[in-house]
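Hey, can you fold this one?
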Amino acid sequence: MLASKFGAPEEMFVQSVERMLSRGDNGAFLRPSPVGLGAEILASAESFDMFRLYAEMEGPVLVITGTDSDPGADPELMAAYRRGLTRDLERVASEDDKVRVEFRRGGHGLLFEDPEGIAAGINRFLTENRPG
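Sure. Predicted structure:
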């Protein structure tokens, strides 16, 4: 279903899920485990402040983000998340001339949903920010 929604090859999605699993005699488990190293990775990702990183960057920054809810997500919660993210990204871009934000129609599978639009946005950004 996800592969179809994103316009991506089904086999690629199946292979992606397979890489996330560790198989053994007792069944299949997420890799890394949600405890131990997996919990550390998740905690690190949750505490990482991208907005601070944008401010610390010395060169131009392009942020491309989707505007749609992801399949299976709580629509009301996701809409609130997207509103907050949009607000915060617009604020960063208005306060820092080196940060450009492009909002594109799509969700978590944005690379599959709008590859041409993303490529065009990146090419435009690179052309406009070419050194010298």
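The beta strands are 21-24, 27-30, 61-66, 99-104. Let me know if you want another pass with a different chain boundary.
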